[in-house]
Amino acid sequence: MQPLSRLDRYLCRSALTAAATVLLALLSLIACFALFEELDERQGAYGLAAATWYVLLTLPRRTYEILPYVLFLGSLISLGRLAAQSELVAMRAAGVSVHRLGGALAWPVGLAWLLGAAVDEWAVPASEALAESHKARVLHGNQHIEPRGGYWYREGPLYMHVQALDDDGGLLGVRQYWLNEDGGLGLTRLAARAEYQGVDADGGGRWLLRDGTQTTLGDERAALDAFGQLAWRSQLDPALLSERVLVDADKLSLSDLRRQILYMEREGLDATSQRLALWSKYFQPVATLGLAMLALAFVLGPLRELGAGVRVTVGVIVGLCFKYLQDLFAPMSAVYELPAPLAVGLPIALCWAVAIWGIRRAA
Q1: Contact criterion met (CB below 8 Å) for 237 and 205
Q2: What does the alpha-carbon distance between residue 343 and residue 362 come to, in Å, rounded to a whole number?
Q3: What's the rounded Cα separation, in Å, for the pair 73 and 192?
Q4: Whole-angstrom Cα distance, residue 278 to residue 343?
Q5: CA-CA distance, 148 to 129, in Å (whole number)?
Q6: 316-352 per-position pLDDT tens digit
Q7: What 8-state DSSP symbol labels residue 239?
Q8: Reduced to 3 states, what is the DSSP secondary structure of residue 200?
């Protein structure tokens, strides 16, 4: 692999500097608006300090979400500045092709995306889970997590409702409903808590239900029995049912999304939102690079002679249009049963088509 030339390093430094400035400005605005929104939910102890901590914990996720648009605006601003100073004209006159400019621009975009992907995979899920659990604990004034309305889990004939989660991975307020072979209700269990005991030799999980009652329903009578502890085997593990139940699908890591999709497919549940989130993460580097190439096409074409203010305005409008297209095609995956890769990839393909057309015209 050849080292970067002086031209590549110059364009890389220019694009990253502009992108960092845009990121700081956008993230500051987004954090302020997010803080105002959180303060609207002010309840009891959830005041300014708690809301500020919540917003700070969500900043890694917000950074990853706006990264493609930050790199697009950064590329547009840096290339526009080079065009305004006639540096792009000098480069072209020296024999630098449009494709070479695009290749040089791909370096900072790829580097920034790699850093963003690392943050999204390892920092975002943990910070989001911490943020949501912090908010839930402050609002409820206790040391355990209470998802709004509790959490439902299905596994074969079992339908289970969990009221809350504790810090040790245990389940609080457990209600289990077991169906019989005819599809009717055959057994119910109520337990104060369930504790995870580890994994069996066959890969199944071992749980222990504590302080509860079990009701067996027959054709003519029901038998109620109390128990201090009762063993229960399940495929459920604390990694699936943890603080991440509070986190939306698009805020999870790739590994968490794959785990959820496998579970939902195994139980015959609808995993459309999880598949869309997974493929959005797969396609994000393609989308980010496509927006950067679109910025190059704009600067070499219709925005070449315009001022920085106009370029930024056009960049914001184009970025919003791209996001609205993504938000439009995502629900179509559920309504019209489009495959998730197609629903996510169509706006990106359109972006690339416009970028290639513009670059070819400029070349």
Answers
A1: yes
A2: 30
A3: 53
A4: 12
A5: 15
A6: 889 889 998 988 887 777 778 889 999 999 999 999 9
A7: T
A8: coil
Measured over the CA atoms of residue 49, residue 53, residue 58 and residue 60, the dihedral's sign is positive
240 Cβ neighbours under 8 A, 6+ residues apart: 259, 260, 263
As a dihedral over the C-alpha atoms of residue 112, residue 118, residue 121, residue 126, rounded to 10 degrees, the angle is -110
What the block records as the tokens of 77 is 């601003």
Provide the whole-model pTM: 0.85
pLDDT digits (tens, 9 = 90+) for 254-313: 988 998 899 889 888 889 889 999 999 999 999 999 999 999 988 887 666 666 677 778
* CA distances to 281, 290, 326, 346, 348 from 351, in Å: 17, 6, 11, 9, 5
Neighbours of 75 (CB within 10 A): 29
Distance CA(145)–CA(293), nearest Å, equals 45
Q: For residue 86, is it left (φ>0), alpha (ψ between -120 and 50) or beta?
A: left
Count other Cβ atoms within 10 Å, centred on residue 261: 17
Strand partners, 196: 207
Kind and range of the H or E element at 69?
helix 48-84
Distance of CA 171 to the CA centre of its chain: 25
Distance CA 94, CA 146 (A): 64
Burial level of 176, CB count in 10 A (0-12/13-18/19+)? buried
Per-residue buried b or exposed e for 306-319, using 16+ beta carbons within 10 Å of the residue's own CB: beeeebeebbeebb
